[in-house]
Design brief:
alpha/beta; four-stranded antiparallel sheet; about 325 residues; Rossmann fold; single chain
Length: about 325
């Protein structure tokens, strides 16, 4: 298997926060380059250095970079989308310290170019009665599945990642004709569009990434459901959305955001609303389930795949 290197630019004070965010995405291996560490190494009072090569001295002024390595396939590209979105989320949070630019670079490849490079890894995905098909691929629909055509660009949501597939499974359990859908962290729009093609009446998607909002709208138009889909750039933790009771709410994000939003999301639910929570790495499952119960929700069902967990809950 081939791998590609992803670099995230930060500062020394941001290392703990950024690596913690990466771990919430299931990324547990990373390399850290930090000039402050090298400077501390040089000034260690317990060690006397009589000579340090001139070429090494520049390391103390090197930028702080966190490196991760992702598989060069569709799964790796989806994980990269998650990393991008998580860095955007961190930029919006006031931690009381500077995290640096959080800019992402891929070896010698511009971030803007990677979307075109991963098309060769993105193939049709079948999840029960739904087939998610790249816009540029031909698909023989031999089993008469509902076909959702997607061009994800740099947005998360192709069906290759476990969290999305788990949501698509729950979607087919919960969505009924003429339902209204709320899609928190809409990404490519895959869940909203799938729900609409499955029979939902309307869908409202929000995302913190402006580019994802644009891509989601385009994908809705590709699938002929654009008139029934609204997508906006909003942060569910900071901004109100139009007051309405939804039949099904998807939150395919990360554990910390899910936990933080549980109180506010209630105002968009009634006793019949299904809340689908995904993007939960198994090491955080207990945290989310405990928060769900503390906030007065009832856990209906959990499904898992490769260390990822999705929950179906109601009030």
């Amino acid at each position: 298997m081939n791998w590609f290197e992803v670099k995230i630019n930060t500062v020394s004070e941001g290392i703990e926060i950024v690596t913690g965010a990466l771990m919430s995405l299931g990324i547990t291996g990373f390399a850290i380059e930090d000039g402050k560490d090298f400077e501390n190494f040089l000034t260690d009072t317990e060690v006397y250095w009589d000579y340090v090569d001139e070429s090494l001295m520049g390391l103390k002024d090197a930028p702080t970079v966190i490196k991760i390595y992702l598989a060069e396939n569709g799964q790796g590209m989806e994980t990269l989308s998650l990393v991008r979105k998580e860095m955007e989320r961190l930029k919006d949070i006031n931690f009381g310290l500077d995290l640096g630019s959080l800019k992402i670079s891929l070896d010698n490849l511009n971030e803007e170019d990677w979307a075109n490079n991963w098309k060769k890894y993105y193939k049709p995905i079948e999840v029960s009665d739904i087939a998610v098909v790249p816009l540029w691929e031909d698909y023989k629909n031999e089993k008469n599945r509902i076909v959702v055509k997607m061009d994800p660009g740099m947005a998360f949501g192709t069906g290759t990642h476990e969290t999305t597939r788990l949501c698509l499974e729950f979607l087919q359990q919960c969505v009924k004709k003429d339902d209204s859908i709320l899609d928190v962290g809409t990404g490519s729009g895959i869940l909203s569009i799938s729900a609409l093609k499955y029979g939902a009446k309307d869908a409202y998607g929000i995302d913190i990434d402006e580019n994802s909002v644009k891509i989601a709208k385009e994908n809705a138009d590709y699938n002929g459901v654009g008139e029934n889909f609204i997508a906006e750039r909003k942060n569910i933790l900071e901004e109100k959305i139009p007051p309405k009771k939804y039949n099904v709410i998807f939150a395919n994000i990360v554990a910390d955001v899910i936990i933080a939003m549980l109180s506010d999301i209630k105002e968009y639910m009634n006793e019949n609303t299904y809340l689908i929570l995904s993007g939960i790495i198994d090491t955080r499952e207990d945290d989310v389930i405990n928060a769900v119960k503390e906030k007065g929700f009832s856990l209906q069902e959990r499904i898992t795949e490769n260390g990822w967990v999705a929950l179906k809950v109601k009030l």
